[in-house]
Amino acid sequence: MGRSPCCDEIGLKKGPWTPEEDQKLVKYIQKHGHGSWRALPKLADVEKSCRLRWTNYLRPDIKRGKFTAEEEQTILNLHAILGNKWSAIANHLPGRTDNEIKNFWNTHLKKKLIQMGFDPMTHRPRTDIFSSLPHLIALANLKELVENHSWEEQAVRLQTEVAKLHYLQYLLQPPNNNFSMPNLDMDTLNVLNSLPSAFSTKDHIHTHTHNPNNPVLNSSSLDSPNPFDSIHDHLPDLKSIELQTNLISKVNNNNNENISNNNNDDDNIGVVTNIHGQDQVVYQHQPCEFTVLTQGENSPTSPWLPSSPSPPPVTATAATSSAPLDGSTTSTTPSSFWADHLLLEDSLFHDIP
DNA sequence: AACTGAGTCAACCGCGGGAAA
DNA sequence: ATTTCCCGCGGTTGACTCAGT
C-alpha cells in the first residue's frame, strides 16, 4: 500500500483548468485514451492532474443540468441503503458523477431531509425533534384551545395529544435501539384508553393474515392535521418498484406453502430489503396493505416467514380500546417502516454488508 | 456601492485496495 | 513475502456567485 506522490512531487500544478488545458486533454484522450493517469499530464502536455478533471467534468457522457425528481428519489433510496457510497450510487444514475451526486446530497438533499425531520444518515425520524413535538403542537393548538374551549376541555385535549405523541414516538424508533415506550402515568393511560383510536397511520401492514378488517390501528379519528404527511411525501413508491425476477424466484423457492398461498395475488409487488442484517420481502396487496416476509435465521436456504415485529410494550388498554393488541398476527406501519423498506436492486443486494 | 452570509461546485487531500516489481 | 506504485474513493476546502442589507 502507499499513497501516490502529490502534485508537487511529480511536478504538477494546481488550480482551476483553463479552456486551453481542457481542450488539450480532451483531444489527447479522444485520440489515445487516457492510459496511465500518471503519465497523462506529460503526454497530453498539461501540467495538472488529469483524472479528476476528465472523470468529473470533461467526460463526454456526463449529463449536465439539474437533477430530476426521479434522480432525486433514486439518490434518496440508494443513500438509505448504501450510505455515502457515492460511486455506487453514481453507477445507477447514468451521466452523473459521484462528485456531482455527493455535492447534490450535501447541498440539497441532506438539508431537505433535516427540514422534514429526518436524520440524513439513518433516514429515520429524528428523535430530538419528536422529543419536542408535544411542546410544539401544544403551542400551535394553544390559541385555538384558549379561544374555543373551557379550561377543563383544554386540559384533556392537551393531555390526549401528549399521550398520542408518546405512543407515536415509540412507534417511530428503530427496532433495535433501546428506546422503550415511555412510562405513562395512569392519567395518560386512561386518556389513551378513552380514545376512539389511539393513533392514526396512512397505511397498515398485515403480516401473516393481512386481514384488512383487522389492522392494529384503525383509521384516524384525530381531528388535527397529521404531522407525518410530509414524511410520507418523500418515501418510496413501492408500486413503482418491480422485484427482480431472480429474487422473486429466490423467495418463491423458499417460501413455505402457507405464506405462498397468502401472497399469490396477481398484482403483488415484492420489494426485497436487507434491514439490520436480515433480508425481508414486502408485498403490497392494496394501497394500504402489505405483507412482510423475513427469511429465517439469515440463511439463504431458510424459508421465508411472515415477519412479526414486536408489538409496542404497552398494555392493550393503553394502546387502543377499539382495536386491542393481540400481538400475534398483525403489526403496524409507522413511518419508520418506510424508512426501513426501501428499494433494493439486485445488483445492490450483493453490496449489503 | 460596499459588505456579508449562504449556496454551489470544482478541485484538492489523504486513505485504502490491489497490481506490479 | 514485502515494498512500491497507481488508482479510486469519500471527505473537505476554497473560489466564485448571488441575494439581502
Give structural attributes:
disordered N terminus; disordered C terminus; 43% helix; alpha+beta; single chain; 5-stranded mixed beta sheet; elongated; DNA-binding; 353 residues
Task: Write structural notes for this entry.
This protein is of the alpha+beta class and 353 residues long. 43% of the residues lie in helices and 8% in strands. It is built from 15 helices and five strands. It has helices at residues 19-32, 40-44, 51-58, 69-82, 86-90, 98-115, 127-148, 151-171, 186-194, 229-234, 245-254, 257-262, 316-319, 335-340, 346-349; strands at residues 204-205, 269-275, 278-286, 289-295, 304-306. Strands 1, 2, 3, 4 and 5 form a five-stranded mixed sheet that branches. Strand 2 (269-275) and strand 3 form a beta hairpin. Helix 7 runs antiparallel to helix 8 and helix 8 (151-171) crosses helix 9. The chain binds a DNA duplex (21 and 21 nucleotides) through helix 3 and helix 6.
Give a short overview:
The chain has 353 residues and is an alpha+beta fold. Helices cover 43% and strands 8% of the residues.
Let me know the average pLDDT: 54
Number of strands: 5
**Which bin fits the share of residues in helices?**
40-55%
Distance between the termini: 24 Å
Question: Main sheet, how many strands, which sense, barrel?
Answer: 5 strands, mixed
| Beta-strand fraction estimate | 5-15%
Gyration radius (Cα, Å) is 26 Å
Uncertain runs: 1-9, 170-353
Overall 3D shape: elongated
What structural class is derived from the secondary structure elements?
alpha+beta
- Name the helix and strand elements from N-terminus to C-terminus, one letter apiece: HHHHHHHHHEHHHEEEEHHH
Q: Total helix count?
A: 15
Regarding quaternary structure, what we see is single chain
